[in-house]
Amino acid sequence: MLDAAPAVPSVEHLRDLLVRLGPERIWRPVPGPDGGLLAPGEGPDMDMLAGYVGGLDVAGKSVADLGCNLGYFSFMTRRRGATRVVGCDIDPEIVQVAGELAKAHGLGRVEFRAVDFLREKPDVSCDMALLIDFIGRQGIAKGRLAAVAAAAAAWGRRELFFTLRPVYRLDDLPVAPDALDRLYPGAVRDGRFHLADTLAGLLGPGWSMRQLTSGRLSGDGRAPTAKAALLFTRKDA
């Protein structure tokens, strides 16, 4: 495990922890408490990420951030009024550093857990679960969508928020179309794999799905390379 700092970690200590993690394990930008950038991350920059949650209402809600990495969206939702945030990641060193970042930013009621949430049942259920950019090509190809849907519904009792590509071209997935059709019967139509519809089917009729339009992820979400923000709401909530 990485060494933890007492009380409020210094910027220098945080930089050291991030260097020891290595850039390949840091998915998103890591801003410091002084406003400076501690690490750029491997994915989109902060300007692009600002549009990911769009008009998502988290005020007064408890939130589970599944696949949280270093807590970028955990911190964002807490600042937007979430009453409690539980960030979950499978990597214990990532979770430890995320906790240090929470202390450095002075954010209470944000906790991080090292947990394989696709296999382990939660001991807490939040109002909302976030799965931001969690579902991608490999997860689809390995047949993990049912496990993802079950985990999301277990952690989020009322709302589930995903960012994903609703539709994939078949040649953009690392699995043969016939194997894909066996994994997800009926999901391959018109030469495409329909991820959003498949996810909705796995969650079942108790959830309603809508695409949030106030974010800046994509245009209409129907292009095979466009990403969308989807919110599922439990109908009896």
UniProtKB/TrEMBL annotation:
Q: Which domain of life is it from?
A: Bacteria
GO CC annotations? ribosome
Q: Write down the InterPro entries for this protein, in alphabetical order.
A: Methyltranfer_dom, SAM-dependent_MTases_sf
This protein's name: Ribosomal protein L11 methylase
- Which UniProt keyword terms apply here? Methyltransferase, Ribonucleoprotein, Ribosomal protein, Transferase
Q: Which GO terms describe its molecular function?
A: methyltransferase activity
Q: Which Gene3D superfamilies match?
A: Vaccinia Virus protein VP39
Per the record, the GO terms for biological process are: methylation
* Residues of the Methyltransferase domain: 59-128
Is Membrane tagged as a keyword?
A: no
Q: What is the lineage of its organism?
A: Bacteria, Pseudomonadati, Thermodesulfobacteriota, Desulfovibrionia, Desulfovibrionales
